[in-house]
Structure formats: structure tokens, C-alpha cells
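Side project, low priority. Logging it here so it doesn't get lost.
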Amino acid sequence: MATVLIVDDEISMREFLEILLSAEGYDVLSAPNIKQALALAEEHRPDLVFSDLRLPDGSGMEVLAWMRQHHPDGQVIMITAYASTETAVEAMRQGAYDYLIKPFDPDALEALITRCAEKRRLSAELNREKIMRAE
């Protein structure tokens, strides 16, 4: 079972994503700020993180950087209501899997999650093959 971490200071957004992702069978964790998010990420090593860009204690880019350093197999999708080309490009350059602008279509979100899960599955399969060849 894949674990998803939602990082957003808006309660309604966290609840929306929790309901949607739980219904899809994911184990869902959520945090309203970076401090709580990083504690959860360290303990649970989520497969996927949705992080708002603007958080009360900093930027969601900090969550992205932490994941890239401590759990590089986990995917991070940045979400924001304050979109700009510069922030989208920077998030992708820093290793975000994708960048969503609020409000987003639930069907598009589900398609994105499916693509993300498929990428993770293929990556794990490739790693297993590398290990088998090395033995």
C-alpha cells in the first residue's frame, strides 16, 4: 500500500485530498506546515507528497529539497494557487514530479497519481533487474 503525505495549510484542501486518496486505497498522512510534514516524512517515508508552495513556516520547496536528499525515491507534486512560470520551472528543476495549480480537476489529479505510481513501479522493477544482474 502506497503512502501519501499532504502538506497544505488549508484544512479544506487537506480534507479534499485525504478523501480522494483514501478512496483510491492510499494510506494518507497530512500536515499543515513544514515542521510537521518533515517529521511525518522521516517516520513514514511517503511514496508521494503533495506540498503547497506557500506554507506558514516557509516554502514547500523545503519539503521538496528534504525529500530529494533523504528519500529520493519518493515523488513530490507541488500545488499552489499562486502560479507563475518561474516557480513551476524551479520546482521541476529541483526534482518535483509535477506542478498543479489550484483549483484542479479531480480527474486530472487521479490521472497524475496513476502516472506517478506507474513511474515508481517501473523504477522499482529496473532497480530489481540491476540487482539481479549484479549478483
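Brief comment: The radius of gyration is 15 Å.
Revisit when time allows.
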